[in-house]
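Hello forum,

I keep getting stuck at the same step: I have a sequence, I want structure tokens, and every attempt I make locally crashes halfway through. Rather than fight my setup again tonight, could one of you with a working pipeline run this one for me? It's a single chain of 90 residues.
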Amino acid sequence: MTTGAPWFVKNSIHHRDFHLLTIFKLMKELSRKFFDIAVNHPNPLSVSAANYEASTPQHILRRPRNVLTDPPDDFTEEVERLIEINMLEE
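Reply #2:
Ran it on my machine without issues. Output:
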């Protein structure tokens, strides 16, 4: 609705035409900025929350910062690959 495009236009076309980040890339970028700010924050509790040892890959619980270092899953990789292909074709 914001772009005025018909309902049948694919989201990948919007991403390409408007140079939008995927949710995965946006969340990674925002998380990276958050942790960069938190590490240098004057409040020592914020600094201690941002600094921690990442859990092992076999661990069931994943800390939020692990998302920054973990590779994208297969689905996300495929979507990003298709977006790049669509951008090259146009």
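The two ends are 23 Å apart (CA to CA). If your local run keeps crashing, start a new thread with the error log.
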